[in-house]
Amino acid sequence: MAISDIEVFAHLTDTDIENLATELDAIRHDIEDSRGERDSRYIRRTIVFQRTLEVAGRVLLAASKRRSAWWAGAATLGVAKIVENMEIGHNVMHGQWDWMNDPEIHSSTWEWDMTGSSKHWRYTHNFVHHKYANILGMDDDVGYGLLRVTRDQPWKRFNIFNLVYNTLLALLFEWGVGLQHVEIGKIVKRRMDNEEARQRAEEFLTKAGRQVFKDYVAFPALTWLSPGATYMSTLKANAVANVIRNLWSNAVIFCGHFPDGAEKFTKTDMIGETKGHWYLRQMLGSANFNAGPVMRFMSGNLCHQIEHHLYPDLPSNRLAEISVRVREVCDKYDLPYTTGPFLLQYAKTWRTIAKLSLPDKYLRDTADNAPETRSERIYAELEPGMLGTDPATGRRRGLRTAIATVRGWRRSKRTPSSGASVRVPGRHAA
Question: Domain coordinates of the chain in residue numbers?
Answer without folding.
Answer: 6-34+112-323
